[in-house]
Amino acid sequence: MTKQNNKQKAPERFAVWFRSDFRLKDQAALYHAIETVKHKDGEWFAFFHLDPAFTDEIDTHHDYFFQTLNHFRDSCSGKGIHLHIVYGELTDTLERIRDHVSGWSTVYFNRDDAGRNSVRDQKAREWFDEHSIEYFDYEDAHIHAPEEIKKQDGSHYKVFTPYSKAWGKKHKPDMYNIDEDALAEYQADLQPIHKQSETFFEEDLLDRCSMNWQALGACHAKDRLETFMDERLAYYKDERDIPERAGTSRLSPYLKTGVLSPRQVFHSAAARREDAGSGAETYINELAWRDFYYMIHYFYPDSKQKEITDKYQSLDWNDSDERFQMWIEGRTGYPIVDAGMRQLNETGWMHNRLRMITASFLTKDFHIAWRKGEEYFQKKLIDYDQSSNIGGWQWAASVGTDAVPYFRVFNPTTQGKRFDPDGTFIRKYVPELKNVPAKYIHEPSKMPEGTQEESGCIIGRNYPEPAVDHSTQRKKAIAMFKGDD
Ligand code: FAD
């Protein structure tokens, strides 16, 4: 006999609101909900709020996100769990759920406390209060919450190194052990909350998500995590800056969508500390960067638009569309910059070293506002994370907290020579440079005419001249920051 048949009166119902935490293991809100449901002998149901703001134009970031959501929904179905999708404005969605689900008393969700998402969460909390729905929210997407790590005087850190020291000393949260057998057993037997929303998602929205992602979902994430930790972690410190090697974990899309939890990634690396030595320590420090930028975004909620350093809020950026387009398309005439942008456009991911180089180039060589680059990355990155992206851009543009000083401008040619010495990565993403001799791969415009012909790469026809002169642009950038412009 099912649990349902034993009930005399309408059971108390508990919702789990999934957002960017698509997993059934080690998920804070889900864990707490299920424990309560079992304790109170209630029922639970899962929903995802599909916001119309994200469904008109499907960029790469949302294509990946919705396909990950769909994959997760399918794996839930495989375990007998229905993830309800409800489309509409936030409060309309909540009203709809309340009308449909009798006995709904409580909702569990994982916090998203930075930037515009915190506004949505606040609106939701107010609605729950008004409608007497009890809510419980948890820190889940980060190892330490923004308020957890403060200076002795109670203020927040602005510089990463002391923050990371304090972060390193703090006890790390354990993983949540979810009773997976209870998930289907205690699930409320409901008709879809809003069938039209589910049809819209399944038939319209997914139809418009046309990219072919090879490695979606928990199984691939687990494989990638284990392979990286077993085979590459020990070399991470030495290889993480070489774009052509598999030197970094590439777990960022899974962390962004919540297919993997940061706790799982942390404990996996920490368990190998002895064997992987400085590789493990360097890797764990990157997870601290993720928390650091989240904390910074939490304390500077308008930093998507506004430079954190006040004195750089009115720099005289260049608004040339032509240059911006060259950067977007990877046609700047600087091979390492072009390779990075084309990797982003083709794959939805870019190596960290290249994110730094391309962001520096846009701001310091083209003098285009970092906000435009941040927005472009938002559309294209499958691991787009508001806080890390804003943090990375403000760092590269020298306008953020603990940013690269404005007078230390990356030289794109030297960066290329250093991190892609024989041009293997460049040749992969900029095929017109494929046969260019190693001697010229970072400065193809210096090729003699005969070499251009031999390598099938005529400068100005097959590959552009450098769009700007780096040393001139560097001086101008420094002058702009100094206010000598
Ligand atoms: P690994 O080197 O394997 O690192 C492991 C994890 O640590 C990453 O998955 C990520 O979660 C975290 N991490 C590593 N470096 C950083 C960092 N500098 N800041 C914050 N977290 C870090 N990261 C994003 O997740 N989303 C973004 O939208 C994003 N935008 C960026 C924009 C710019 C301009 C720059 C310079 C960096 C940006 N980063 C962003 C940080 C970093 O480039 C990526 O996290 C990293 O390249 C992801 O690849 P990985 O998983 O192989 O990283």
TrEMBL record:
Cofactor detail note: Binds 1 FAD per subunit.
Keywords: Chromophore, FAD, Flavoprotein, Lyase
A Pfam family per the record: FAD_binding_7
Amino acids binding FAD: 236, 248-252, 283, 286-293, 383-385
InterPro entries, per the entry: Crypto/Photolyase_FAD-like_sf, Crypto/Photolyase_N_sf, Cryptochr/Photolyase_FAD-bd, Cryptochrome/DNA_photolyase_1, DNA_photolyase_1_CS_C, DNA_photolyase_N, Rossmann-like_a/b/a_fold
Catalytic activity: cyclobutadipyrimidine (in DNA) = 2 pyrimidine residues (in DNA)
Site features described as Electron transfer via tryptophanyl radical, chain residue numbers: W317, W370, W393
GO biological process, any: response to light stimulus
Residues of the Photolyase/cryptochrome alpha/beta domain: 12-143
Listed GO MF terms: deoxyribodipyrimidine photo-lyase activity; DNA binding; FAD binding
Family designation: Belongs to the DNA photolyase family.
Protein name: Deoxyribodipyrimidine photo-lyase
UniProt source species: Alteribacter lacisalsi
